[in-house]
Structures are given as C-alpha cells and as structure tokens.
Amino acid sequence: MPILTIYHLTPPPGATTLSFHFGRQGIGLEETSETLASDSFFAALVAQAALSDVQRTPDGVPVWVAPFLNGQPPFRHSSLLPRIGDLPLLPRPLLPLRLPDAAEVAGKKLKKLRYLSPALFVAVCKGEMLPDSPLILQQGKIWLSEEEARSLPSPWKPTAGESTESWRARLSASLLWQIDATPRVTLDRLSQASAYYEVGRIIFSPGVGLSVGVMFHDPQAQPVFERLLTLLGESGLGGKRTNGYGAFTWQRGAPLSLDLPQPHQRAVLLSRYIPTPDELALVRNERSTYQLVNVGGWFLAADGTTYRRQSVMMVAEGAVLSCADHLPHGQIIDVRPDMNLPHPIYRSGLALAIGIPTAIE
Questions:
Q1: Residue 236 in 3-state DSSP?
Q2: Per-residue pLDDT tens for 75-93?
Q3: Highest averaged pLDDT of the listed ranges 77-91, 108-122, 321-335, 345-359
Q4: What is the DSSP string of 283-308?
Q5: Which among 146, 155, 160 has a CA at the least distance from the CA of 176?
Q6: φ and ψ of 163, to 5 deg
Q7: Helix axes 221-235, 38-52, angle to 10 degrees
C-alpha cells in the first residue's frame, strides 16, 4: 500500500493567505496556473541546493543532485497540488468514471474536473461505482466525497442546525482560490514611453493552499529535503518573488495512505514524467492513456545571461500507463540550449507513480 509523506505549504508569518505567480509557457504574465508541476518544483530545489551546498562533483553538479542523476533518487515527489484544510487533493486519473444512471452530473459537466479527494481517487483507480450525488467545488474542478467533506474544518464543515442540502449548496459555492491581475507599468529605455501590463496572481482562500506528496526511499534524505523546503519558502516559489509573491512556510501533514491492492498492471502518475529509452513502450502501449505537455521556459545562467531552455514533451499528471512488472522511473535530462554553457540545466521527468490493481475495467 503506497504511503506518501505530505507537506502542506502554509502562509508566511504575518500573512493569512498564500499567493503565487506560476507562469505558463507561451502565455503572457497576466496568466498563472493554480499548481506547480513537479519538474519546476525539483528545479527550485536544485537551485536552493546549488546556493547552499558548496560541495560539487567533478562535473560541477551539487552533490545533493548526483543520486537523482545516477538513477537512484533518495525520494520522489508529486507536483504541488491544491489542498483544502489538511485534505490534499490528487490529480484525476485518466480512467473512465463509473457513475450511476441516475447521477446528477455526467458528460460535459465533468470536463473541467481536475482534482479528486483521496477516497475518490482510490475509487476511480479501482474502477468502483462513484457517488450519484457528488460534491463539486471550484466551478467543476474539484470533486470530494461527502465523508471527507464533512471532516473538513470550518468554514467548510456543516454548522449546527444546517441541513445537508444547505451545507452542500454552501460548500459548492465556496471560492477556494481566485486569480487576479496586478497592474504594472514599464518604461522604454530609449524613449521613456510607458507601457501598461498586468501580472496574474493566484490567491488561495484562508485555510486553502498547496501540498506536495513525497515518497522517501532513503530516510536520511528527509531532513535535507525539509531544510531545502524551508530555504525555498524564505526565497519564494514561482515568479515575481521581488513583488512579494511565493513566500511560504510548511508543515508536515498526516501520511497519505492509498488503499490500492497489489499486484498492479497499470500505474497512475502524480508527477510529470519523461520516459527513459527503455520505458518508451509504456507510452506506446495502446492501453495507456495520457496527455502530453510541451515544457520550455527560460533560465538565468551563472554569468547573468538569460537563455531559453530546450523544449521537451512530458507526460502530464494523471496519466495511466500500462506496466505489468514495474513502476515507471523516468529520467532527468539536460535542456541547456548550448552545450558550451559551463553548467547543465536539468529538467526532471522522474515519476512518482502509484500502482493500480488488476481488476480495473
């Protein structure tokens, strides 16, 4: 039974909410994502390790990174995903949703669904029948089981004397996060002409935030990971950190145990994934279901110059891969645009995969 160590990102001292700018490739600064993918989170950890760890391998790589490059990662982590209170959410697996004929939702209404509570995640992976009256939040993006929803803290739990219908309606209308646009002005260096632009920011409601699931293979790696997470919270995560975005603290949540019996014949991804050459058969298998995302972006080299990374196609979270005898491992690749650059630029496609039982159809 897979067990994940859960870390909740919480507001920094003096703040009641979390706010981030998670830019997306090819879209202006006014847009932001509500989550941070695993490869970007790993890159942020590597940057912190490079700043705080003076020990290097002969290739100039921080010693902390070497086991990941050698195919023996001391831990694997998910993407940063939303949480409600202490309830972490998981990506919707790309599997059919078994709904009763009398279900209140179906078809187009489920197209926006992106996150499931852990109990529903397990039910979908097992191929079980789902509730006919779901609790859908955040304009169709989140689906909770009623039992998990009732365990949430205030203001989401039922109040004294509140009917079930009223509580469900209030919960469904709750706004968990919103994206606003902050106005900015820039001046042309030559003409001094002003140009107006906006920067998107996601603001989580009080009590709502992000969490990351980590599977440690080496217990000694946990304190190092937590030290890097602390440093990352102080320096900030995402873009526009100089404007005050991205700061956070963290706290360890209850371990997340997913009741999925073994053996498995498929695996669902909680992170992005780059298959190794030996694993290409997993994504070519006709029983695998996945979405690809083109990932690029920019980086600031040690000499202060900005370069564009090489783009790479990655398998997105929620993919279901056919793998009878092992779980997908993934790999880290060097995406520097010019091999003459003095240091590598890594993109992590290491997978955090959960095995799915055989009786899934």
A1: coil
A2: 999 999 999 999 999 999 9
A3: 77-91
A4: HHSTT-B--EEEE--EEE-TTS-EEE
A5: 155
A6: -70, 160
A7: 90
